[in-house]
Amino acid sequence: xxxxxxxxxxxxxxxxxxxxxxxxxxxxxxxxxxxxxxxxxxxxxxxxxxxxxxxxxxxxxxxxxxxxxxxxxxxxxxxxxxxxxxxxxxxxxxxxxxxxxxxxxxxxxxxxxxxxxxxxxxxxxxxxxxxxxxxxxxxxxxxxxxxxxxxxxxxxxxxxxxxxxxxxxxxxxxxxxxxxxxxxxxxxxxxxxxxxxxxxxxxxxxxxxxxxxxxxxxxxxxxxxxxxxxxxxxxxxxxxxxxxxxxxxxxxxxxxxxxxxxxxxxxxxxxxxxxxxxxxxx
Length: 282
Prior knowledge:
By secondary structure, the chain is α/β, with parallel strands linked by helices. It has a single domain, classed as Protocatechuate 4,5-dioxygenase, Chain B, CATH 3.40.830. The protein is 29% helix and 16% strand.
């Protein structure tokens, strides 16, 4: 499968492909980008097992805007949107090309909302810390779509449904966040940040979320505050949860979900991730 960088073309001129899987990735700490751990190894495994995409579209928790935007740069910069970490982390670079024609395709195709072109944003750590393992050669074009901070969960889910056309053109869509994400209540067991450790509510809600995913109960996942009495602690702000709803919106009825990296760490972060579709379970 040739990618958009090679073709210098837009999606409309590409033949339909077998339905591309879609991923929700719990990306966790930026340190995963420079650590050999169970999460980074699994991200490498994904790259070995997934079909080679024409391009990648990432919806990251770390790009919130007023309205919805899509990156238009031919050479998106690697954004180090964090502080207080080792120098090695700030030296990381993911030099993937952009895909302006793909970005324009997204703008032209979507009727759910007006999507603006953005040539300033690059690839934030919700995107590149994962892709540096999954596609380490950085030879597949990547664009990001922002999260409209002012829209509710149902709105984002519906936009995900409209973006599902990308899967028929060999485009890999990744939602990157964490289903449970409360940095204010973060606690670490011993010296290992990635050790399994959590409050009762974080384990309970992680299990509830997995059950709803397997049941295909998108309505309950959209109304996540009603899933558990402590859901407000698990999702105090929605930006890390919402990327999951985009991926759910792209799921065809009865399409299988494979769950991986199923783990609660640091008391209040779920690394639980899933793939929609694909020939093999992860």
